[in-house]
């Protein structure tokens, strides 16, 4: 019980700090996290589910252009995914904060293994935050390149390096060539998007 009291206290303090900074700098960061309740970026994990369902005529959808990018609208599942996203984003931070506290009871920066653990937690938390955004697109992956570089300096896992390389290659293809083909539901480009998103989830769940 004392652990969860401590965890909730830490989490509440972080949340209050975010709100304070948000108000202080006037950037509306927290409000932007929950933006566009009825829109999903066409590259998001949630949109991938809708593409699969639409292939079997289970759902329908339409596109809307806003703020320089395309979003999925008018699907029966968009309201559900928006509610799911808004209700779970803070829970995800809570879970990973608890993971950090449990794993790092005897944490010390002087230990190479603990440094590696810190970088892994940072990468997993960043990936979960990014890939489950409703506005997720390929450009967001630039944020995690420095963290991945650190991971590779600690971890010699060749398979992990291959997966990240494939993810960045597929994301580059989507950004440069496949983006507008997704709008016309060209099978090859939608498949590339689905593979990229699946690999992202796979890496997160196997870190």
Brief overview:
This protein has helices spanning 2-25, 29-33, 45-55, 78-103, 112-131, 145-154, 158-183, 187-205; strands spanning 40-41, 62-66, 69-73. It has 207 residues and is mostly helical.
Describe the structure.
The mean pLDDT is 75. The protein starts with a helix and ends with a helix. It has helices at residues 2-25, 29-33, 45-55, 78-103, 112-131, 145-154, 158-183, 187-205; strands at residues 40-41, 62-66, 69-73. The chain has a three-stranded antiparallel sheet, with no helix packed on it. It has eight helices and three strands, in the order H-H-E-H-E-E-H-H-H-H-H. It is mostly helical and 207 residues long.
Task: List strands and helices in order, with pairings.
Elements: H1 2-25, H2 29-33, E1 40-41, H3 45-55, E2 62-66, E3 69-73, H4 78-103, H5 112-131, H6 145-154, H7 158-183, H8 187-205
Antiparallel strand pairs: 1-3, 2-3
Helical element count?
8
How much of the sequence lies in strands comes to 5-15%
Q: Strands across the major sheet, in which order?
A: 1-3-2
The portion of residues assigned to helices is: 55-70%
Give a quick set of tags describing it.
mainly alpha; single chain
